[in-house]
Amino acid sequence: MKNLKANEIIRLLGNLDEHEYYRERRVQRGATVKELIIALQTTTDPNVRRILCDMLGNRQAKTAVPMLLECLDDPSAGVRKAAADSLGKIGSPSAGESLLVHFKQEKQKDARVMLAAGLGAVRHRPSIPFLIEALSDSHPILRGLAAWSLGVLRAEEAVDSLRRALDKETDEFPKVRMEEALTLISAGDEHSNRIGD
Predict the structure, then answer these.
(1) Which CATH number do you get for residue 9?
(2) Which of 31, 105, 130, 192 sits 20 to 30 Å CA-CA off 153?
């Protein structure tokens, strides 16, 4: 099945249950990015919007960035989470400012977690102070992904905060991400010194 149109995409993805992945695979194989974007703009079904966001991210569809940014305002937290995740997968620096705005105002924890990861993935350095603040959040996955993003950003200004957070951390996931972040930042310092020699 090739060249699916937006209305066919919406029909195929509507009312999917966990045993109907074959329809999702048919859409992935048979739809262009353009039609996926049109379907995302058209559908009123939040589950279909979530799936479409995921598909566009998995395809690393740069042309979908404006539509995915719009999805950060979706009423469905699942769609917001999928949009943030997909923007991170695409890695477009142009998404950084919008990801940060939404990170600062998002209340739903799972969506906020993906926004934190997205900020690192798009290399948005202005988010560093907010990611440092998230190291003390009550949600361990958010603490971990904030640390991951700080490591990816080689945020030297976060080293002391990462060390303090690591000393207090009791959950394994954030602890490992904090250790990795400190290693990445340290490696970045060594790399900077070698370049200057």
Answers:
(1) 1.25.10.10
(2) 105
